[in-house]
Amino acid sequence: MQTIWQDLRFAARMLAKSPGFAAVAVLTLALGIGANTAIFTVVYGVLLRPLPFPEPTRIVQLAESYQAQSDEMDVSWKELEHLREYTPLFEHIAGFTDVGFNIATGNEAEHVRGVPASAEYFQVLGVHPALGRDFLPEEDRGDGRRVAILTHSLWMRRLGGDRAVIGQKVLLNGDGYTVIGVMPAGFDPRSNSGLNPGVQADVWVPLALVAKTAGSGENIGVIARLKPGVTRDQLQSQMDVVTRDFRVRYPNVVGQQLVLSFRPYQAMIGAAMRPFLLVLLGAIGFVLLIACANVANLLLARSSSRGREIAVRVAMGASRARLIRQLLTESALIALAGGTLGLAVAGSGLSSLLAMAPSNLPRLNDIRLDGWVFAFTFLISILTGAVFGIAPALYATKSNLSETLKEGEGRASAGAGRARLRQGLVISEFALSLVLLTGAGLMIATFAKLMNTNPGFDAHHVLTMQFWLDGSKYNSTPEIMRFYRAVEQRIEGLPGVNAEGVVAAGLPLERGGNNGVRIAGPKESEWISMDYREITPGYFRAIGTALRQGREFTETDAETSSAVVIINEAAARKYFPDQGSLGKHLYVSGVLCEVVGVAGDVKSYLDQPADPTTFIPAAQAKWGTSRLFEGWYPRSVVVRTTGNPLILNRALREAVAAADPLVPTGAVRSMDQVLAHSLALRSFMMLLLSIFGGLALVLASVGIYGVISFAVSQRTREIGVRMALGARPADVAQMILTEGLKLVAVGVVLGTAAALLLTKLLEGMVYGVSMRDPLIFALVNLLMAAVSLAACYVPARRAMRVDPLAALRYE
User: What's the Cα-to-Cα distance from 48 to each of 268, 363, 372, 572, rounded to whole Å?
Assistant: First the structure.
């Protein structure tokens, strides 16, 4: 221990003698370690932090696997009942889904998120109400008992934290529910769920109340708690039996290539984000490696000036192992200082990172600096110190003793080895930088391609506002239409409004509803699933979607008139490829409808083709279907304006409140904001990879500048001799630039080969761009050539100014 303290004190004294070197090394590492810590904090919070439930590793979720990929699987009520037959490995198994409720207290209403769950749901999670009880088995049988469990926040917000709330009734969508429990403060399973990540649950009700409703039982997720000691192999063997049985009983649900399995609940959370986050973690790891290479270059240059010191210590009896330990202690001290400063960098950068993150990033509340993050930073600091310190330490301690003391040619030999290592480090820096810049280039090209993709509507000057209707008050299509017309009449009189409409079951660029459709005719088709929207007559004009054929809906398309439908071009191409679609008939929600128009394709996802879609006049929509979709998707007012649409924010809320003050409203967004939200993840990746690539290129440029500058200082006498023999300054500059650019060229070749392999990791993240796009590779190479040329020019210019007489007197 005493020897370690001696090494630390000596290392601190040596670094204090070279404050410039120490500051540059520590700052370089602080950037690399701090950035790695920030990204790791996000990855750990989203993917690795244990869930806040007892024994969370025993909680699993039903998934479907296909070609080695897993995704959560939804089942129907009937299929859930069948799964319950296979319970020998489970302590508890439960189903759950996600709906919305309007909760009314006094003269106010609020829209909240609800989780219909089966009786064992809370037992699977291992959490129980702080007040009251959870669901009873008989409440899981769909006998009509309307009971509810509230979150602590809803209990405090709407009911004032009244402890006598148990047994009282609350109105959810106009129906009375008896409160039977209040969950502990902070319990928020929806922020830990793969369904609608980040959306907080406010209330739980029995799953049977909604799952047995016709058409509503196809979106049930399944979670289970394993019995103690159950292994993964045992579980999969059981699920192989379930898969075979399901293939027979439900051939339309489980295809022959699909395999049912239960995956760890935590692994299913944020599964969609996992590839993106791991790519970011790998990219920032490259930046840290480049920072290590830079510090290693600094140490190699410094070791040249410490040759006599080390030789003297060897002459006094120090072993090579002892010297290596001392030098590694200095490296570790630099790394720990960089790690400490890196924590400050991570802490200040994390808030900015989260501000840039897409809103659907799950478990945001779990992303924070804590002991595990500190342990990661400490570990990575120690490893970093070893990575950049070992090679300089080995080179510094292998000098020939007598030759070094005489400052003879033996030192030149050692210096040549160091020079080759420094050049190798610079080559690796540029290779890694090229990989990062190529990835950034692909994401930039993807983002540009998506921005130029036609979404099927004109997003400019369009404002939208969400709202939710109470199912008990608005219990018929005429009641709903009266509300729509009252709102539209108030909006159409507002200054600057060109068109207005209402859409139910989803806005463009957002996942919307789908419904069963059958094509009528001599050979009626089987039921097929198509996207479904209910709209008022002004919707297409408000959203800016052109009608390709036929007509729009009008006020005459009422409940008592002939049923009509408008389909999009995707539906026309797929189902009526060789014949006109106008005048054809479809069964939509069981109603025979005539096709009276074909609308342009409107995308739900910018990077995917538009799905076949049916548009139904809101006045002809079946009330049961309309109410069903409202559980998942808000209705939206859509308004086209002549100026900035956001100035009508308050006016839209007032229009709804004037029509009915108990109808809750949600987000008011322009369609430009909706478009930006759909690109948030790609924008996040593009921005971070660009920052990482730029930082890597700066560090690599500093690295080559240092190597060339050091080479010039070491070759001052040689340069003087060349100039004395007639070499022109331009010849000397060309020689220096050529040597530097040769290193860059080798790095570019190696980096290009690595990029061709590693950019395959981005294959699922790019759109409309070839992974081997020659233009992107060419632009990245040109950028690297320009920056490296500028970095080499400064030492080359200094070499041009060498005074031959002074150089000949050097040493």
Answer: 11, 11, 11, 46
d(CA 568, CA 535): 14
Global model pTM greater than 0.90: no
Nearest to 297, CA basis, from 715, 692, 695, 699? 699
Would you state the structure tokens that stand for residue 143, as one six-digit string? 């006998």
Give strand pairing partners of 616: 534
The 8-class DSSP code of residue 319 comes to -
State how far the Cα of 179 lies from the Cα of 165, in Å rounded to an integer. 7
Which one, of 685, 767, 781, 775, lies nearest residue 439 by Cα?
685
* Predicted pLDDT at 329: 85
Distance CA 797, CA 794 (A): 5
Q: What is the DSSP letter of 18?
A: -
CB-based contact 298:22 (threshold 8 Å): no
Residues β-bridged to residue 176: 171
10 Å CB burial of residue 650 (0-12, 13-18, 19+) is exposed
Is-contact 584 596, C-beta < 8 A?
Answer: no
Helix (H), strand (E) at residue 52: none
Beta bridge partners, 443, equal none
Strand 528-535 with 514-519, pairing = antiparallel
Q: CA torsion, points 428, 430, 431, 434, in degrees to nearest 10?
A: 160
Q: How does pLDDT run across 28-80, given as a tens digit for each residue?
A: 999 999 999 999 999 999 888 888 889 999 999 988 765 445 677 788 888 88
pLDDT of residue 193: 39
Spatial distance between the Cα atoms of 726 and 364, rounded to a whole number of angstroms = 68
Residue 588 has pLDDT above 90, yes or no: yes
